[in-house]
Fold:
Amino acid sequence: MTQGTTKEQQPGTGPGRRALLGAAVLGAGGAALGLPGTARAAERGRGHSHDDLPVPLVVAHRGTSGYRPEHTLGSYQLALDMGAHVIEQDLVPTKDGHLVCRHENDITGTTDVADHPEFAGRKTTKSVDGVSLTGWFTEDFTLAELQTLRAKERIPENRQRNTIFDGRWSVPTFEEVLQWAEKEGRKRGRRIWLHVETKHPTYFRKLGLGLEEPLVKLLRKYGRHKKNSPTFLQSFEPSSIERLGKLVDGPLVVLLGDADTQPWDFVEAGDPRTVADLITPEGLEWIASFAQGIGPTLDLIIPKDEDGKLLEPTTLVRDAHAQKLVLHPYTFRNENTFLPADYRRGTDPNAYGDVFGALKAYLDTGIDGIFSDNPDTALLAAAEIGGR
Ligand code: G3P
Ligand code: CA
Structure:
């Protein structure tokens, strides 16, 4: 099994390196010492971009995907209005090389492409990172064609309320997001932090659509390529992060899927290491040689038993902090069906469970941030444990 492919797909130097180091050390030490988030943030070092950020920080996962169709300007805007510290984008390319914000290149589940008879002939079956998918794919559309589509809710069976926004927004380009962030930054008198992921980078490079170069070109155009730029760059494929690290100076985060999975670039290169190897002290030391953080799945922070209930936390927070890596785990969602079993309430899988109890369990481990589909509740939980 490879990582970077979620269940949802089936149907449908750095940051101030020193600041990050400080954040990492104090994320662990601060938690152990009971320091409030503000104190931990203040201790992270001065003069670096991360001084602005709270600990723990809340990353709006695909915007506010708990409330709006994901990766739309409406989803990002609500996240910012809620006060999310960082807004996430996932990037894939169009046929003509433009970067657009989609969680995957298969746009069957998140756009109305199936309702466009002019594109019926584009439906096809492909193998993406070893997974066979049937649908419509961004790399088969020019940007002009893609912009005739409208975004829709990915999981209407769970989030029926969000479907009232179906059709309201188009698929944004990454450049549109950068322009939006500039405008909002001017309006609010502060920098707008982004957390930008390259999706399927090896797959696209083999198609002649490498992601990193056009991404860096845009980052340079909008001044987000520097040491203190308010932009995290993330990928499930370490080689994409290494490539980006040679081109920009901002903070880099290696995403980590389930322990038994392999990054797809490892599969392609014949590298036998799994995520289990990468979360050993040696693996984390290797990641720390080119990145400043990791984005592990929450199960790597606190595993679950066979009933889906939380067990004791692993040593990953301590081990990553020992390598001066920050941790931004993913993804917290408020609905029962996505919560650990011991934090569900009632029998409706789509009702909200004990969200604050579950968030506290994760945040108490000393993680430096968390990706959430519901930034508002994550922000409250972060504030309750001493964040600012
Ligand atoms: O990038 C952090 C998190 O978003 C990773 O999961 O599959 O939602 O991109 P995914
Ligand atoms: Ca992502």
